[in-house]
Write a structure and sequence with these properties.
Strand content of chain B: over 45%
Structural class of chain A: mainly beta
Largest interface: A-B, 25 and 23 residues
Number of strands of chain B: 11
Order of helices and strands of chain A: EEEEEEEEEEE
Radius of gyration of chain A: 14 Å
Oligomer: heterodimer
Distance between the termini of chain A: 36 Å
Structural class of chain B: mainly beta
Shape of chain A: globular
Number of helices of chain B: 0
Order of helices and strands of chain B: EEEEEEEEEEE
Largest sheet of chain B: 6 strands, mixed
Helix content of chain A: under 10%
């Protein structure tokens, strides 16, 4: 498995501002992912962040709104830009590590964002 | 058809009961399958990977049926501490996971 931390754990932000969420893992990993989980919903992938390349965004998510950095194999950031109340959600990073028979994903504790 | 579908529940069962969850997926090319457990206001935690031959971990048994494109999770001798939402997840084309909406389980004394 992997030990993953996220900062901040929660924040309340005003609309129009931006928030950068940090994700730190205790080992070097190639694949890191950013998900969003809105209240009462399941997880939706925002983007895949691989070190040394541009992040790959899912349909409905764009780089201008959710810029991502991946400077090394243990760290990534997700910025939620020009926030609106619709961005209120839990943002989770995950990493892929090799399991016994398959690659497995482990999640950070999440960042609970409220936009007022 | 949604990519990954689960019965949302809730499943309300007494302690000691056996409960089964099913999950169907639409992409026949998916290669990896998982069950996650998510407690209220917490992140999903990997419960089990699901292998073609089926696998068991204590009271938990997971099975995969590729022909019918569904996976299942069986929990025997339910404990109060098993109360949570159970998410099935299927691998996507980018190495990401596609999640179902989850099945809520409530185990009562």
């Amino acid at each position: 498995s992997a030990v993953i931390s996220q900062k901040p754990s929660r924040d309340i932000c005003q609309r129009g501002t931006s928030l950068t969420i940090q994700c730190q893992v205790d080992s070097q990993v190639t694949m890191m992912f950013w998900y969003r989980q809105q209240p009462g919903q399941s997880l939706t992938l925002i983007a895949t962040a691989n070190q040394g390349s541009e992040a790959t965004y899912e349909s409905g998510f764009v780089i201008d709104k959710f810029p991502i950095s991946r400077p090394n194999l243990t760290f990534s950031t997700l910025t939620v830009s020009n926030m609106s109340p619709e961005d209120s959600s839990i943002y989770l990073c995950s990493v892929e590590v090799e399991g016994q028979r398959a690659y497995e994903q482990y999640f950070g504790p999440g960042t609970r964002l409220t936009v007022t | 058809r949604k990519e990954v579908e689960q019965d949302p529940g809730p499943f309300n069962v007494p302690e000691g009961a056996t409960v089964a969850f099913n999950c169907t997926y639409s992409n026949s090319a998916s290669q990896s399958f998982f069950w996650y457990r998510q407690d209220c206001r917490k992140e999903p935690k990997l419960l089990m990977s699901v292998y073609s031959s089926g696998n068991e971990d204590g009271r938990f048994t997971a099975q995969l049926n590729r022909a019918s494109q569904y996976i299942s999770l069986l929990i025997r001798d339910s404990k109060l501490s098993d109360s949570a939402t159970y998410l099935c997840a299927v691998s996507g084309s980018q190495g990401n996971l596609i999640f179902g909406k989850g099945t809520k389980l409530s185990v009562k004394p």
